[in-house]
# Entry
Amino acid sequence: MHTETTSSNYQFDLLKVGVSSEGIAHVEINRPSALNAFSTQIWRELAQCFTRFKSDGSVRCVVLSGAGRMFTAGLDLKEAQTGPLGKPHEEGVDVARRGYYHRLYILEFQDAISTIERCDKPVIAVVHGACLGIGIDIISACDIRIATEDAYFMVKEVDIGMAADVGTLQRLPKVVGNDSWVRDACLTARKISSKEALFVGLVSRVLSAKREAMESAFDTASLIASKSPVAIVSTKHLLNYSRDHTVQEGLEYTAAWNALAHNSHDMALAVLSSLKKQKARFPNL
# Structure
């Protein structure tokens, strides 16, 4: 059974974070009264949390889920009306000057979501109920996606008069690998069932309910956490690098990376344990 303890390093207002003794962190988007809609505070807390995970050697894998009825209803539109996206042109300030700072805001938002991808610890997203708008940006930055039968997905940005701008249009085509389907989903903002998401490869598996999906996620996380942390972070890092580069560039970078990573004691421990048919226990990163 998965048990978690809270840590003073991971105290947030809108995220609930626990870390188990085996190094599995559970991040729960915890704003159920607002259907986990993303305010500026949530995405900034998300960035802080995953930035800390990257340098926390005791964390080996992360499970990301949402509290309440759904994963997330997307962007908090009420806050957006008064925030940088909704502010009217200030009198006397030209478009170029206003646009300069608006761009910085978007870049900060993008960077916050990218911390999930840059965190070398694998991240497993569990989606139940609705996953709208920014929810797609977030799960596209995760490594593994698990859904419930009642889960559904919508790239909603065109319905609020904008193009998705914090990761969906960049990552989703690489996650799914079907350009026609991605354009269909992004241009229509239509509702995508968990069955369709599984068919196109957006998620790896679909479970009957949230409890079963969470159990599946923690089982996978536990298996990942049992491996050499050097091997795991290296694999995620190299997969991300190779996705964005040519095969030859990926091979050359892997050779340079592994020239260092192969010096880990984990390799000898893994080989010896395999020969003895024993379970290896690897030290934290």
